[in-house]
Design brief:
Radius of gyration: 18 Å
Structural class: alpha+beta
Shape: globular
Largest sheet: 4 strands, mixed
Number of strands: 11
Strand order of the largest sheet: 4-5-1-11
Length: about 240
């Protein structure tokens, strides 16, 4: 099976649990290290979301690589920090580009072909924004134009910036307030992020090629996807990931 473009799956972690039972359940799709990591969460709901997101991460990779989903646990996941080269940062699997995010019981994973970086982020919409958010996350122009009580608009910008920075591999090592999100000016409705501080401009020049979109899939959450170029984007059903040839 050849998979092109960007694909993503988002759903409640509980749905993933039920859906993966025919493959042996979540634990059958995770490495021993991931199972151990999930046991460190104090809240069971957080542990469940972690396990669901990482199982989906492996299932998305298996689909992209044409592998049997029952063998997803055998895929090697590694982390390498773009800044220091250490074994942390964005998780990766050879042969595919992947990104995952989770928030308040909802998980999302996106994939794209090798050589086409991808970023995904999701956040539950809060009733109010915490003090200091605007100074950290927004540019002065964004602060000026956003209504003072519009939490949803602020989180929409936040997930867009996080997705863009996941795409380049920088993550929150770069403060979101250094990026300005604006219309890319194309016909696909996507947006892009521009670096506003001279000190970051050369290091983040690849952001000029990143395009951001906001799927409206789940009420009460803001979701953003980012990738290089303008590929076809497809939302998957869980059955697409669990299919055994």
């Amino acid at each position: 099976m050849t998979v092109s473009g960007m694909e993503y799956f988002s759903a409640a972690a509980s749905l993933v649990v039920e859906g993966t039972r025919p493959l042996g359940g979540l634990d059958a799709l995770l490495s021993a290290a991931e199972q151990n990591a999930s046991s460190r969460f104090r809240r069971e709901s957080d542990a469940l979301s972690y396990r669901a997101a990482h199982a989906l991460f492996r299932l998305m990779a298996a689909r992209r690589l044409g592998s049997d989903p029952r063998l997803a646990a055998a895929l090697r996941v590694y982390r390498r920090c773009r800044t220091c080269g250490g074994e942390h940062g964005k998780p990766s699997i050879d042969g595919v580009q992947l990104s995952l995010s989770r928030s308040a019981g909802i998980v999302i994973v996106a994939s794209s072909p090798e050589g086409s970086p991808v970023g995904a982020d999701i956040e539950q919409l809060p009733s109010r924004i915490f003090d200091g958010f605007d100074a950290y996350a927004l540019t002065s122009r964004e602060r000026e134009h956003l209504p003072s009580r519009d939490a949803a608009a602020r989180i929409r910008l936040w997930v867009a910036k996080e997705a863009a920075l996941k795409t380049t591999g920088h993550g929150l090592a770069v403060e979101p307030g250094t990026l300005s999100v604006h219309d890319a000016g194309g016909t696909d409705g996507s947006w892009t992020a521009t670096v506003i501080q001279d000190s970051w401009r050369s290091a983040l020049s690849e952001l000029d090629q990143v395009r951001i979109m906001w799927p409206q899939d789940i009420d009460g959450y803001a979701t953003a996807l980012a990738t290089v170029g303008s590929p076809e984007v497809r939302r998957l059903r869980l059955g697409d990931l669990l299919h055994v040839a």
